[in-house]
């Protein structure tokens, strides 16, 4: 059977190590959808179709679980050192094709190449980190309080995992799940976002070629993921769900996972506050703000959504932010000079326009941008809106775009209260030269991750995740490995 494929050729003519298979990876083979249906993949910068991928239905979902189940016992029994070697091979294979993968991401996601290169390095790092973790899954041995028994705890692979990823980091969100799953000894089914499946398919093929055995990683894409994922979650062989995406879809999946009491990790939406105190170094704060706001053109769950700036430096901060964001080059991500690429689709532009219009109607002032350009491509310019009033939707809704909403505050206690006035609790940022005060504020901010004098929290070695409606569980670091392990207690009479 011939496999459909897409040849991604870089701007300097490199066609990559292979044509990317665009069918479904089930077991050892790439197969088309039985329905014959395909999903068109758009380039958001040009609104043209790049290629199409096979559109799976529930039958292929079942086949993917069959393949994961068939590979499960052997993979769990594979020596940790061998699993580690394979993961390390995946790291090297990905990094060898960093530029090619970055250009692929820029094409299907729209982000700037510089962001895409950073994403590939971050994504590959999960393979290296979990290669190192795979050989350090240590158990525990304790003397029972009575002294008469021994309590032995062993960490075992939790079982087959369904991994569902979003479009904003199509490589990193996949490897952040696959790498710990494989390190722990689990097999998996990856369901990438329908907007950006090509990157996941390329990563899967890289993994296959790097030695990941058949059935350990299976990939299905679907234009209607609801029924497919629901059926997979009702297959008793599936024991883990790891989802990254919106809180709304996370809630639906949690309900479905409840039927079989499936262990669930949820990396959901965010609404990150960025607090700048009077004593902060303003240039460092602007540097951090540019990363926290403009990495991925604001299409990040950790993106700063609300800038609370102490009154003494508020006007200077706004002026500098306008200057820096105003100097950014907007355009197709694939063009090397671009700093702010295209948004993912027309809906994203409409959402941003709605939030900005609502804030302006309530009294905010547009200091920069604030209007999508006419013409082809899903572009929105870097924008700053100041004096955003309480009650504005942009303060409670993820804008997921290059818009900075700035609000003044008077004292740090008030800033913490404002930061916490959201149902979300993923990332938060604090800029102050008083580290003790920064740490005390970090303790009181309701977020899974707080950065002090930094504009970036993501690190393969750190536990990434949220509180409140931003999610459950952690990805990255040792915590991320434990999400794919079951603690087996063996009671030993002494
Ligand atoms: P989304 O929830 O619409 O989609 C995410 C994934 O879920 C996609 O693969 C999609 O196909 C799938 N999906 C949608 N409906 C489904 C259903 N009924 N059943 C099963 N799967 C379904 O989110 P999105 O628009 O792709 O991504 C943006 C959201 O993701 C934002 O809210 C962002 O904050 C969040 N996000 C969170 C993190 C994090 O680590 N916390 C990271 C990146 C993105």
UniProtKB/TrEMBL annotation:
What's one GO BP annotation on this UniProt entry? gamma-aminobutyric acid catabolic process
Provide the Aldehyde dehydrogenase domain boundaries.
Answer: 30-490
> Which InterPro entries does the UniProt record give?
Ald_DH/histidinol_DH, Ald_DH_C, Ald_DH_CS_GLU, Ald_DH_N, Aldehyde_DH_dom, Aldehyde_DH_Superfamily
Q: Which UniProt keywords apply?
A: Oxidation, Oxidoreductase
Q: Where is the active site?
A: 267
Q: This protein's superkingdom?
A: Bacteria
This entry's Gene Ontology molecular function terms read: succinate-semialdehyde dehydrogenase (NAD+) activity
Show the SUPFAM superfamilies listed in the entry: ALDH-like (SSF53720)
Describe the family membership recorded for this protein in Swiss-Prot or TrEMBL: Belongs to the aldehyde dehydrogenase family.
Q: What name does this protein carry?
A: Succinate-semialdehyde dehydrogenase
